[in-house]
């Protein structure tokens, strides 16, 4: 265990969920404490804390309501999807999903700084009994913009080649649909001008771009009407601007598709869960996903929150990037297992790599 992390010992008895609600007076007393550890913002004790952040066991809506207004730079999370079959970690039906999520979204909007961002990873779903797709996630997006007041800064996409071919009836039995392997990542913001810099996520120039720079390019107008200027071949920015569909098979940051599986069996987190007989979170997302947006949308020392932490990939990545962070999870076993990420950082794979969580 590193000297920077203080964790509570694993207890055999079940913990009671921590009550996170706080009074208006204590909120005011804490609202300007962000120069100190993030755990100072909450009355309740964290399940564990690290040098830069803290994880809490309990109701994530209560945690959000306990945070001060306008102090968070980024919320990045992946809540339970509205699937037509129930998962062990709990998920709402498509009919009730939008109304269930809006209270969380309202609090997220409140706690964000004016130039802050909300990055939401959400997957699609089939309608029950028919080979047709649900519109629940699109309805949620519209509600987030029209009812809560977010702006859609950009839509991004995560290609997960490890996703199972579901529902099996349509894909592997009747073979009338192809595999659904793309999930949405919506970048939302309080203002049309959130803090962001793509200079923080530049990718290596391709061989074609380097050749263009070497040979030069003449100004021209493409058939599409796009103007290619003489400066098109310049590479003085230090790297190429990534697209909104990024691929994680490069040694550092993604290139053209957020292409990441989530089925690793040999990373340190998974191994230690197995060794200690602790349940592995069944819907982990890879470290590269929060890493990309934390680098794009925040600076060192900024404040990141994940209200649906699961195995706390976001918290660990924020820690590695020296961002302050708070994470919330309602299932103790998942939060307990997430401590493994922080206890042996030297054994953890570099979050820049393709290694999955």
Structure description:
With 357 residues, this protein is α/β, with parallel strands linked by helices. The protein is globular. The strands form 2 sheets. A 10-stranded mixed β-sheet has the order 1-2-3-12-11-4-5-7-6-10. The chain has a two-stranded antiparallel ribbon with strand order 8-9. The chain has 10 helices and 12 strands. Helix 2 runs parallel beside helix 3 and helix 3 (94-111) packs parallel to helix 4 (136-148). The protein has helices at 24-30, 60-66, 94-111, 136-148, 168-173, 207-215, 268-275, 288-297, 313-320, 332-343, and strands at 6-7, 48-49, 53-57, 72-77, 112-122, 151-159, 182-189, 220-221, 227-228, 258-259, 303-306, 324-329.
> Could you describe the largest sheet, including whether it forms a barrel?
10 strands, mixed
**Order of SSEs, N→C?**
EHEEHEHEHEHEHEEEHHEHEH
Helical content class: 25-40%
| Poorly predicted runs | 1-22, 205-212, 248-258, 260-266, 346-357
User: What is the residue-averaged pLDDT?
Assistant: 76
How many individual helices? 10
Order of strands, main sheet, comes to 1-2-3-12-11-4-5-7-6-10
- Sheet-strand content, in percent, reads 15-25%
Distance between the termini: 20 Å
Tell me the overall shape.
Answer: globular
Structural class: alpha/beta
Q: Report the radius of gyration as a whole number of Å.
A: 21 Å
Strand runs, count: 12
């Amino acid at each position: 265990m590193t000297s920077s992390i203080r964790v509570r010992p694993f207890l055999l008895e079940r913990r009671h969920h921590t009550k996170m609600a706080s009074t208006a007076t204590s909120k005011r007393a804490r609202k300007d404490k962000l120069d100190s550890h993030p755990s100072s913002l909450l009355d309740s004790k964290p399940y564990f804390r690290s040098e830069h952040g803290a994880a809490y066991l309990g109701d994530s809506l209560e945690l959000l309501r306990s945070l001060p207004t306008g102090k968070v730079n980024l919320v990045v999370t992946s809540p339970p999807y509205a699937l037509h079959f129930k998962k062990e970690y709990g998920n709402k039906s498509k009919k009730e999903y939008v109304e269930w999520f809006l209270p969380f979204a309202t609090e997220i909007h409140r706690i964000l700084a004016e130039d802050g961002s909300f990055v939401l990873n959400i997957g699609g779903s089939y309608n029950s009994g028919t080979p047709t797709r649900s519109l629940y996630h699109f309805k949620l997006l519209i509600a987030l913009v029209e009812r809560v007041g977010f702006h859609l800064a950009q839509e991004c996409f995560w290609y997960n080649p490890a996703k199972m071919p579901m529902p099996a009836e349509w894909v592997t039995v009747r073979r009338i649909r192809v595999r659904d392997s793309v999930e949405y990542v919506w970048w939302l913001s309080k203002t049309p001008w959130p803090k962001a810099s793509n200079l923080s996520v530049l990718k290596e120039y391709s061989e074609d771009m380097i050749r263009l720079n070497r040979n030069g390019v003449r100004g021209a107008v493409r058939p599409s009407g796009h103007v290619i200027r003489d400066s098109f071949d310049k590479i003085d920015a230090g790297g190429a601007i990534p697209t909104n569909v990024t691929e994680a098979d490069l040694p550092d940051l993604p290139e053209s598709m957020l292409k990441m599986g989530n089925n690793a069996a040999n990373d340190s987190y998974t191994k230690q869960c197995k060794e200690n007989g602790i349940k592995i979170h069944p819907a982990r997302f890879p470290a590269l996903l929060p890493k990309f947006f934390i680098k794009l949308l925040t600076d060192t020392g900024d404040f990141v929150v994940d209200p649906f932490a699961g195995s706390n990939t976001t918290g660990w990545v924020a820690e590695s990037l020296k961002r302050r962070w708070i994470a919330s999870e309602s299932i103790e076993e998942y939060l307990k297992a997430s401590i493994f990420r922080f206890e042996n950082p030297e054994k953890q794979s570099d979050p820049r790599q393709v290694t999955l969580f």
